[in-house]
Amino acid sequence: MAGDPIIGSGVHRCVCPGSFDPVTSGHVDVVRRATDLFDDVVVAVLTNPAKQGMFSADERVDLLRASLQGLPRVRVEAVGGGLLVDYCRSVGAVAVVKGLRSGTDFAYELPMALMNRHLTGLETVFLPGDPRFEHVSSSLVKEVAAHGGDVSGLVPDAVLAALVERLGLGDATPLQ
Ligand code: PNS
């Protein structure tokens, strides 16, 4: 369609959306693999009202930027509101990329993928999560860290430091 920012832009761009509260090593792996499949990748930070937030949108963006440093052709943006499909159209993305750790993830993601396709034809590409991170989610990481458990390796170093700071764990070094 003439004037459509998606078709004919010449750039095969995807969006990796999520709440990223905070970004985990599993997220980083999915974004890295998305760069192998697409010309460029926009990591879109949204607020999911169903989830309890620990970090503000700006903090989540900063942690993502620190964690994705060195990955080529990736940019991180906060999305103020509205539908993901509208955001994807505004940035000229041809697809959403999401990681799947399990059948539970698939059951959660499938209706959203189908709804997004229903709304504008936007496709979703699912990448199987790396088994090393199958048990890793932002919410479990926060819970384990809050109780002094060791989450090193499950999150990027910048996130580990931010968790220590946010949870006031600096003296006891319980995350090591
Ligand atoms: O990391 P999350 O919390 O599982 O990500 C879910 C998210 C934020 C990508 C999803 O809730 C979303 O797309 N929100 C934007 C609003 C929207 O488009 N809702 C309809 C989805 S079909």
Report the helical percentage: 25-40%
State the helix count.
6
As laid out across the biggest beta sheet, the strand order is 3-2-1-4-5
User: What small molecules are bound in this structure?
Assistant: 4'-phosphopantetheine
Give the N-terminus to C-terminus distance in angstroms: 54 Å
The count of strands amounts to 5
- Overall pLDDT, averaged? 92
The SSE order reads EHEHEHEHEHH
Task: Give the uncertain stretches in residue-range form.
Answer: 1-7
Key features of this structure:
5 strands; disordered N terminus; alpha/beta; globular; five-stranded parallel beta sheet; binds 4'-phosphopantetheine
What does this structure look like?
The protein has 176 residues and is α/β, with parallel strands linked by helices. It has 6 helices and 5 strands, in the order βαβαβαβαβαα. The protein has helices at 25-37, 57-67, 84-91, 103-120, 138-146, 157-166, and strands at 13-18, 40-45, 74-78, 93-100, 123-128. Strands 3-2-1-4-5 form a 5-stranded parallel sheet, with helices on both faces. Bound molecules: 4'-phosphopantetheine. 4'-phosphopantetheine is lined by residues 17-19, 46, 48, 51, 83-84, 112, 115-116.
How is this structure best summarized?
The chain is α/β, with parallel strands linked by helices and 176 residues long. The chain has helices at residues 25-37, 57-67, 84-91, 103-120, 138-146, 157-166, and strands at residues 13-18, 40-45, 74-78, 93-100, 123-128. Helix 1 (25-37) links the parallel strand 1 and strand 2 (40-45).
